[in-house]
Design a protein that fits this description.
The protein is an all-alpha fold. It has a two-stranded antiparallel ribbon with strand order 1-2.
Length: 1432
């Protein structure tokens, strides 16, 4: 009553009364600020009292009384009578009638007082009094989560009585105060704040009731309150949505600021309601501004078409709201969007459930008869489909209106989000059209969001991948869902079709940026798997798409382009290049359009003259596609021979003229004045001409290759090749890269065997190879090192070497054939230049170039395929050191292998050695891919040679792993290379030896290299004495038999350091512990995380499936599933390796850990599932003789014990000592061992162990304090909605577990913890003792009270600074010794009593009067012993 009077008086009209009442109320509410709430000790425990109960008494009665004054006594009585009819139990009715007894009174015989009392009870208090009263109630609701849980068991259906009673009064106050003309009053602001607080508590209460499965009547009462709240806030926001001026004062005035605060609270209320389970109410009041449709009550689940009222309101607010509240309006709109998405997903799930039931009925229609309900066929209601269709039809105009360019940014941003997250699920075609329109928005955020929704945010301007597919991501759940996307024809009609509705623009009316995005999106849809294999692409749709691109290019032909227009041209050329990979698109281009007047000749011209390099490059690719398709050109058959005629083909397509023009443009690079764009375009277009012509000649293989204009074309093509070679070393970067890429295009080929090089190209090829040799040396030298340019040159060199394979042994014997020369010297010099890149200055700048060199060497080595090489050299490697003359006589594949093994990998330069890892991987990886792809490939020359030397590859990879100066790419290349060796051995059968035996031999050699036994330390690098002797004896015998056999068994004590191979040792150990040695290869593959493997070219080429193929362990998903039952054994090793002191080991094992478990919450769940065996193994490793094992185990333990409970540790009874052999470990034993391990690690001889021990000790301290605190088991929000029985059960169990943990911890810390020889261990134990005393219940401390007090007193004495003793000795010899001694004693007492130990001692001594006599008697000897033993 006192609080209620002070609250009402704080709004009094008299300033003096108002100020004093406010001061008194504020002082009273701050009574316990920073202090502990008094609690009584009863029966060995304490009765906890909330601060609200101490200060306010019955909070519900106080709230109802204050609200009754705010709405008036008559209104409150009417509300009370109405509520009493809704509740039946006496307890509920009593809560409704809770009041403080404050009312107006009058004497019975005084008519004047009666009349005044009757008049006053009909009135409510003034607005000046109402405002502080309502704000006080709002703060009550905010500060007390259990306000609505008084006196009722939450399992009761009428437990909502307090919430309904208070909520009804609040809504009545809101309705009374919000009158016309009162929009800016302080009372409306106060009641808006109160409504926001009320809805927050009501939604939490409602969600809990839904979760508990309360009755429909109980839920309906709260739903009505929430619906009325929604209606009130929508009425407040309606003027803002319509654009009306709400502020009666100027901006910044008090009235305007009040209105802002009111709307701010209303937006908060909308957010609260939209994020709760109230949004799934089948009446959908949230979406209709709080009103309940009449149809929804009779047609359950029907989504009314009028359910976009709230969306229209909030879209209007987002457009018209003041700048200060724009974020709040946007947040409310986002919350409503999330609510819509939840409802649509719920409807989709219901629809799917009905379909499943219908299918099950069709499969077994007699099941209904057995259930006693004949003809019980489930009806497939179409309500859900019609509901979502109606919603999409209603939302589409609204979102289009919000997305107009004239709307503010927040409105357009909301339109993009609604289109992506909601409309895309309802009407995907129109949603995608809208997103394409928004992708051209002037605001970068809106545009990027639209591109991301379309799935092309990261590919704009990039080359097309023919294997790519449309990828629409979902932001809400982080998954990628394609859903039921429309076909390409439907998308064409929606985005590019004829304009039908003026307010919904299509492609022709899009912004230039939106046009570029639309074309790229349509191309991705065309190339997607759904379009290619799910639907039939109509020729008309593809024709319209191609013609749209051509019309766009023709529109900007010959014009000076802005940046956006140039980007559009780039996308047009990219899309045209992508779609012309199909024969239908090429035919459309050749047939053309009479009205367009833009053909392939114009494309060739623009490929030379365009301002954009990207446009020139892709238009040249388009021309290449057209030239290579011989079926496009009419009249190509020779009438006399009825065969394909090359001269007719050249005349029809005009290739000779284009090639001549390109040669002329390229010829200008030798001059000082040249046009860069023309030379760049000529390089790509000329290369396309060369490729088309040489492939046709190779296919024709004789005939009319020298007749007609063929000779002219040869002349132009040879000139182009020579000029491209001369431009490789050009000082201009653009020209140099264009020439190298042009050579890549010119000499690229389809298939696996390079076509035979025509003799007419020998001269130009020799010139080009000579120039390539010089360019590689130049740009890999220390003066001009350029990794990017060297990579481009290496790619071209590989194709040049592959294309010139057929002419490698050609000798000019006929002087009439154009003066041809030998290619052999030029080829060998180019190969040497490629080897020279390894370990060069360019490699030092970027080691990824070694993988490019490896791919180039693969092309050189495998170009011949099955062809027989004419050579007089021996097929075996020559003994002794590297011999260059011998190497040059070998076939390409043997030349590469001989040079790598005999020279490169044994070089003294560590950079050179480590650079060999990637080329070795490229070779064996290529062989493994082909061998697993087709059995016939197993007989290719390169694969046979590699397969016969797999032992050399394996030895080389193991040596590279052991190299202490190896880089990450080198190590990971070796890992993948070992897996490729396994895959190749399984795919190819060797002469006289089965593939299975070869695979087993590789497994044996690999495991022996890592060490093949698991000893007590868990290290795969350790060998027993017998194994070491056996290995040495085996090595000696092998060396005596064949001195040339490479040493592959280098594991164990033979030289591999534990630091260098720590990661692989753990993988081998895990594989052996699982009984599946083949798992080692997949684990090694999973441990690789270099960015180079994620590139599009390498992702599939070096994946586990490609390298391992059909070998066991090739499927990583299968390995993950297979490892699940064995994770209990594998997790401890992985966790220990993830905390290894070696950085290299940590990085690779972290990658493996994330690959196996998923990382984050998934990893935590996996650890929790296998917590106890993991902890037991790690605790054994933490006391291992190997210091690295101790470091890793301590680090792993400190991570996995965070936040664990007594049950997680194994529960069980109290054990105060673990000095026995316990077969079944309990939580007590594990906690004691954790303390022993932590204190021992803090005193370890190794610095790394001590550092991890400090980390572990802190984690154990936090775990111990958490276990001893009974309040940590129950979360406040969770406890608020538990029934009384559930709450009491949890509190009881939590108290029992906390008491067990405290008894175990206090017993060990008092007996052993404070006597540690290590100062750091003693300090952490004292800190833990103080924390336990702070949180533990007094009843828990009684059992160890005497020992605890004695230990704390000795700790206080032992922690005194040694300087005090020194000062006391010095003071004893001074003149005023007695005075100084007294001062030092006072200083001692002050320091001792001011520390945290003194506080813990005081708490323990305060309990002495409550404990029994026996405990008090035990305390006296302890105090006496402390007085005798303490030094302070």
């Amino acid at each position: 009553r006192t609080v209620a009077l002070m609250v009402l008086l704080s709004g009094d009209t008299d300033p003096d009364v108002k100020s004093k009442a406010s001061a008194y109320l504020r002082a009273y509410m701050d009574t316990y600020r920073g202090k502990k709430i008094p609690a009584s000790v009863e029966g060995g425990g304490t009765t906890e009292i909330a601060v609200h109960d101490v200060l306010l008494g019955n909070s519900v009665a106080l709230a109802q009384s204050i609200l009754s004054f705010s709405v008036g006594d008559l209104s409150s009585v009417s509300i009370e009578k109405k509520l009493l009819t809704s509740y039946k139990t006496d307890m509920a009715r009593a809560i409704i009638q809770l009041k403080l007894g404050l009312s107006y009174r009058a004497t019975d015989n005084n008519d004047g007082q009666k009349k005044a009392a009757l008049l006053c009870c009909r009135k409510k208090v003034s607005e000046t009094t109402t405002s502080p009263a309502l704000m006080f109630v709002s703060k009550m609701i905010d500060d007390n989560p259990k306000l609505f849980h008084i006196g009722m068991d939450m399992g009761n259906d009428e437990a909502d009585v307090a919430a309904v009673s208070v909520g009804t009064l609040v809504l009545a106050a809101f309705g009374d105060l919000r009158q016309p003309g009162s929009s800016g009053s302080s009372a409306v602001e106060a009641v808006s704040c109160l409504l926001n607080s009320l809805c927050l508590r009501l939604t939490l209460f409602y969600d809990a009731r839904v979760h508990l499965g309360s009755s429909a009547l109980s839920l309906d009462r709260i739903q009505q309150l929430l619906s009325r709240s929604m209606a009130h806030v929508c009425a407040v926001l309606a003027p803002t949505s319509s654009g009306e001026s709400l502020s009666v004062g100027t901006a910044g005035s008090r009235t305007a600021n009040t209105q802002l605060e009111i709307r701010d609270k209303c937006y908060g209320t909308v957010c609260t309601l939209a994020r709760s389970q109230f949004s799934l109410d089948e009446r959908y009041a949230l979406f209709d501004c709080g009103s309940v449709s009449a149809d929804s009550t009779t047609n359950s689940g029907l989504f009314p078409l009028s359910t976009i009222s709230t969306a229209s309101l909030l879209f209007g607010c987002s457009a018209n709201e003041s700048e200060m509240l724009h974020p709040r309006a946007t947040a409310a709109l986002d919350a409503l969007l999330a609510a819509y998405v939840r409802v649509v997903k719920a409807l989709a799930q219901d629809k799917k459930k009905v379909e499943v039931e219908h299918q099950s009925f069709i499969a077994n229609p007699w099941a209904s008869i057995s259930s006693g309900v004949p003809n019980a066929q489930p009806t497939k209601s179409s309500n859900n489909e019609s509901n979502t269709d109606g919603l999409s039809h209603s939302l589409l105009p609204l979102i289009w209106n919000a997305s107009r360019c004239s709307q503010p940014k927040s409105s357009r941003l909301a339109g993009a989000r609604w289109s992506h997250e909601l409309l895309l699920q309802l009407d995907s075609a129109n949603a995608l059209q809208l997103l394409c329109f928004l992708s051209g928005d002037d605001d970068a955020t809106v545009s990027m969001l639209a591109k991301k929704a379309l799935g092309i945010d990261g590919i704009m301007g990039e080359d097309v991948s023919l294997t790519s597919s449309l990828n629409l991501s979902s932001e809400e759940d982080g998954t990628e869902e394609k859903g039921d996307l429309p076909s390409f024809g439907v998308l064409m009609e929606a985005i590019i079709g004829k304009q039908t509705i003026a307010s919904r623009p299509k492609y022709d009316r899009f912004h230039v940026r939106a046009q570029a995005v639309s074309l790229r999106f349509l191309l991705q849809s065309l190339l997607s798997e759904d379009s290619f294999y799910g639907d039939e692409i109509g020729t008309s749709s593809l024709q319209e798409y191609v013609l749209t691109i051509l019309r766009t290019i023709a529109l900007y032909k010959g014009r000076t382009l802005a940046r956006d227009e140039m980007d559009l041209m780039d996308e047009c050329s990219i899309c045209l290049s992508g779609c012309t990979s199909s024969e239908e698109a090429r035919m459309i281009m050749i047939s053309g359009d009479d009205e367009l007047k833009y053909g392939y000749d114009d494309i060739a011209t623009q490929a030379l003259s365009s301002n954009s390099s990207k446009t020139r490059r892709h238009l040249a690719a388009v021309m290449g596609h057209l030239y290579e398709d011989k079926t496009l050109w009419s009249g190509l058959m020779d009438s006399s021979t009825d065969k394909f005629s090359i001269p007719l083909w050249l005349d029809s397509c005009g290739l000779v003229g284009v090639a001549k023009l390109c040669r002329e443009k390229l010829g200008t690079i030798t001059n000082d004045a040249f046009v860069l764009s023309e030379v760049h375009g000529a390089a790509y277009l000329g290369a396309a001409c060369v490729r088309a012509f040489r492939l046709v000649i190779a296919e024709k293989n004789g005939g009319d290759v020298e007749s007609g204009n063929v000779s002219s074309c040869w002349e132009e093509c040879c000139g182009i090749v020579s000029l491209l070679g001369m431009g490789l070393s050009h000082s201009d970067l653009v020209i140099g890269n264009a020439c190298s890429q042009g050579l890549v295009i010119a000499f690229s080929y389809d298939g696996y065997d390079a076509p035979i090089l025509h003799r007419r190209l020998f001269d130009s090829m020799a010139v080009t190879l000579t120039e390539m040799n010089a360019a590689l040396k130049k740009y890999c030298s220390i003066d001009h090192a350029d990794p990017h340019r060297a990579s481009s040159l290496a790619q071209a060199a590989g194709l040049l070497l592959a294309a010139s394979t057929s002419g490698a042994g050609y000798t000019n014997q006929d002087t009439n054939i154009g003066g041809s020369i030998d290619l052999g010297p030029s080829r060998l010099q180019c190969v040497e230049a490629l080897f020279g890149v390894l370990g060069s200055s360019a490699y030092k700048k970027d080691d990824e170039i070694s993988l490019v060199i490896g791919e180039a060497l693969v092309k050189y080595a495998d170009a011949a395929g099955h062809a027989e090489w004419s050579s007089t050299s021996s097929s075996d490697f020559k003994e002794g050191p590297y011999n260059e003359e011998f190497a040059f006589q070998l076939p390409p594949q043997k030349h590469v292998l001989y040079t790598l093994f005999k020279r490169e990998i044994v070089a003294s330069n560590p950079m050179k050695r480590n650079a060999c890892a990637a080329p070795l991987l490229a070779l064996v990886g290529h062989a493994s891919r082909l061998a697993n792809l087709d059995e016939s490939f197993g007989q290719r020359n390169m694969i046979l040679d590699i397969n016969s030397r797999l032992d050399m590859f394996q030895s080389a990879f193991l040596k590279l792993l052991a190299d202490p100066k190896s880089r990450q790419l080198s190590r990971e290349s070796a890992c993948k290379g070992l897996a490729a060796c396994r895959g190749l051995s399984s795919a190819v059968q060797q002469q006289g030896e089965s593939a299975t035996s070869m695979s087993d031999l590789l497994n044996e050699r690999l495991l022996k290299a890592f060490g093949q036994t698991s000893n007590y330390g868990g290290s795969m690098m350790m060998e027993t004495d017998a194994q070491a002797r056996e290995r040495r004896r085996y090595d000696e015998n092998v060396g005596a038999e064949d001195s040339t056999t490479p040493e592959a068994d280098i594991g164990g004590a033979a030289g591999l350091s534990e630091a260098a191979l720590g990661a692989y040792r753990e993988m081998a150990s895990a594989a052996i512990s699982l009984g599946r040695p083949d798992v080692l290869y997949t684990l090694m593959m999973l441990s690789t995380n270099h960015p180079v493997w994620a590139l599009s070219d390498n992702r599939d080429r070096y994946s586990a499936k490609a390298l391992l193929g059909s070998a066991e362990g090739g499927d990583q998903n299968e390995i993950r599933v297979a490892l699940q039952p064995h994770l209990g054994k594998l997790i401890p090793r992985l966790l220990r390796a993830c905390n290894d002191p070696n950085k290299q080991t940590r990085e690779q094992m972290d990658a493996l850990w994330v690959a196996l478990t998923g990382g984050g919450a998934e990893s935590r769940a996996v650890i929790t599932k296998n917590l106890l065996p993991t902890m037991d193994i790690l605790m054994q490793d933490a006391v291992s003789k190997l210091w690295r094992a101790r470091v890793g185990a301590c680090g792993a333990l400190s991570d996995i014990i965070v936040g664990r409970s007594w049950e997680d540790l194994g529960a069980g009874e109290v054990e105060i000592d673990d000095e026995g052999d316990y077969s079944n470990l309990t939580a007590s034993i594990r906690l004691l061992r954790l303390w022993k391990i932590a204190t021992r690690a803090l005193d370890d001889v190794r610095t790394a162990v001590r550092e991890r021990g400090d980390q572990l000790a802190r984690s154990v301290r936090a775990l111990t304090i958490r276990l001893c605190n009974p309040a940590t088991r129950i979360l406040p929000d969770e406890d608020a909605f538990l029934s009384n029985a559930q709450r009491k059960e949890r509190e009881k169990q939590s108290a029992i577990d906390a008491e067990k943990a405290a008894n175990v911890s206090l017993g060990w810390l008092v007996k052993y913890g404070l006597n540690q020889p290590c100062a750091e261990a003693t300090g952490i134990c004292i800190s833990s003792l103080l924390g336990i005393v702070e949180v533990a219940k007094p009843a828990t401390l009684w059992l160890v009270l005497s020992g605890l007090v004695g230990a704390l007193l000795l700790a206080m004495s032992g922690l005194e600074p040694a300087a005090l003793n020194y000062l006391q000795v010095r003071a004893a010899g001074s003149d005023n010794a007695e005075e100084q001694t007294d001062q030092l004693e006072r200083l001692r007492v002050k320091l001792a009593m001011g520390g945290p130990i003194a506080g813990a001692i005081n708490k323990c001594l305060d309990m002495v009067r409550f404990v029994d006599l026996d405990a008090q008697q035990k305390l006296i000897p302890e105090l006496d012993a402390c007085l005798r033993q303490a030094a302070g």
